[in-house]
User: Fold these one by one.
Assistant:
Number 1:
Amino acid sequence: MRGITEESLRHVMKMHDMDDSKTSLIFSHLFNECTELNAWQPIDENTPNDRELWLYYHTKLMCIGMFNTISYGFKPTHWQELPEDPK
């Protein structure tokens, strides 16, 4: 999946001095459609425990692993789905 962040769109708009009304309207619509791809989700009762995930720890450590509610040591605070394998 490919995407662009709102921050990247704003940077492109500023870089090319796109301030005419038609261009501004187009970018305004694009900004409204921006969503973060594969956003970090908080660890809660909906966290999948049947597959490997990206796990994020409060120590700014990230690793791939299975989430288990029975944890030893540090507990992850957020998770993301893993991306698809390259083709």
Number 2:
Amino acid sequence: MNLKPRGNWILVERRKSASTEEETVVLLPEDYKKPDNPYSVVKVAEDSSLIEWSYGDMLLVPTHIIREIIIDDQAFLMIEKNHIMAKVEE
């Protein structure tokens, strides 16, 4: 299945973490919840008509604006163009 965003919407995917930390065991209270990062780096998942962003570009966005859309058991992530804070370059 393919999803073609329109208007200000951009199809993205979560950036894979490059961390290679060793796993450690730490005992925590049962009600402990790891704090969520308020910002995420996402990767543009397809070329769009938007001049600023192309396939593979990494973008910094507030985590809470990432929308997950499920169609026939397939998940798509979308963001609105006006929520992009920065382009991330390595």
